[in-house]
C-alpha cells in the first residue's frame, strides 16, 4: 500500500476525532529531475506557485476528505517542519504532540495510527489536527 493510501485510511478512520491537513511542498521526485521508478504521478519541478497549486490539486483528488494546501515557493512550511519530503505531525491545543521521522525512512504511519488510537481511548475536550507535510 502506498504511503498516500495509508494516510488516506488514517484520515478516514479518525475523522471523528482529528481534522487532517496535507501541506503540499516541493516535489520529491519531479518527472524532469530525480525520477523515481515507483512515482505514482508525473509532476515536473515547480517553477512557480501555479505549478505547485496544480500539483496540490492532483493530491487533493487522491485524498478528497483531507484539506490540502500548498507551501509557497519560499518553502516556509517545509523549512519550519523539516519535512524533507514527507513527515507526519499531530497538533493539539496549538502544540506539537507527535512529530514523526523524516520520510521516506522515518515515515511511520503505524506510529500515527497508534497515537490516534490512544488518543481516542483517552479522549479529552481538546481537538487534534493531523498534518502531513
Automatic annotation (TrEMBL):
It comes from the Eukaryota. InterPro entries: Iodothyronine_deiodinase. Keywords: Oxidoreductase, Selenocysteine, Thyroid hormones biosynthesis. It holds the Pfam family T4_deiodinase. Belongs to the iodothyronine deiodinase family. Responsible for the deiodination of T4 (3,5,3',5'-tetraiodothyronine). PANTHER family: IODOTHYRONINE DEIODINASE, THYROXINE 5-DEIODINASE. This is Iodothyronine deiodinase. It comes from Polyodon spathula. The lineage of its organism: Eukaryota, Metazoa, Chordata, Craniata, Vertebrata.
Amino acid at each position: 500500500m502506498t504511503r498516500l493510501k495509508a494516510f488516506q485510511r488514517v484520515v478516514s478512520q479518525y475523522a471523528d476525532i482529528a481534522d487532517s491537513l496535507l501541506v503540499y511542498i516541493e516535489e520529491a521526485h519531479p518527472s524532469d529531475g530525480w525520477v523515481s521508478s515507483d512515482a505514482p504521478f508525473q509532476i515536473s519541478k515547480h517553477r512557480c506557485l501555479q505549478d505547485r497549486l496544480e500539483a496540490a490539486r492532483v493530491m487533493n483528488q487522491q485524498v478528497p476528505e483531507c484539506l490540502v494546501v500548498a507551501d509557497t515557493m519560499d518553502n516556509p512550511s517545509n523549512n519550519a517542519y523539516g519535512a524533507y519530503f514527507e513527515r507526519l505531525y499531530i497538533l493539539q491545543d496549538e502544540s506539537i504532540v507527535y512529530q514523526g521521522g523524516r520520510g521516506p525512512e522515518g515515515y511511520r504511519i503505524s506510529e500515527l495510527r497508534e497515537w490516534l488510537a490512544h488518543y481516542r481511548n483517552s479522549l479529552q475536550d481538546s481537538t487534534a489536527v493531523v498534518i502531513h507535510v
